[in-house]
Amino acid sequence: MSNSKPPVPTFRTDKEAEDFVENADLTQFDLSGGEPVRYEFKAKDANISMRVPQQLLEAVKARARQEHMPYQRYIRQVLEKAVAPRKNAS
């Protein structure tokens, strides 16, 4: 008999997945195949357009790929971090 845990089942709907997570003992399943996912819930209500050197855009896109996110979301996170209040600011 194998000591390995079964993989998480595949679901056809979000409702099926929600019910499974709500009721299953997840410690009984192999979760090693999971990947981090970022969710954004805030509505975006403004657009910007800017021209940047192609080399800069390619560098931003490469960094976004490393972070496993769309480059526009990556740019937004960089901007949010740049304007966030700094800790220990005098």
Automatic annotation (TrEMBL):
InterPro entries (UniProt xref): CopG_antitoxin, Ribbon_hlx_hlx
GO biological process: regulation of DNA-templated transcription
SUPFAM superfamilies on file: Ribbon-helix-helix (SSF47598)
Lineage per the UniProt record: Bacteria, Pseudomonadati, Pseudomonadota, Alphaproteobacteria, Hyphomicrobiales
Domain of life of the organism encoding this protein: Bacteria
Name assigned to this protein: Uncharacterized protein
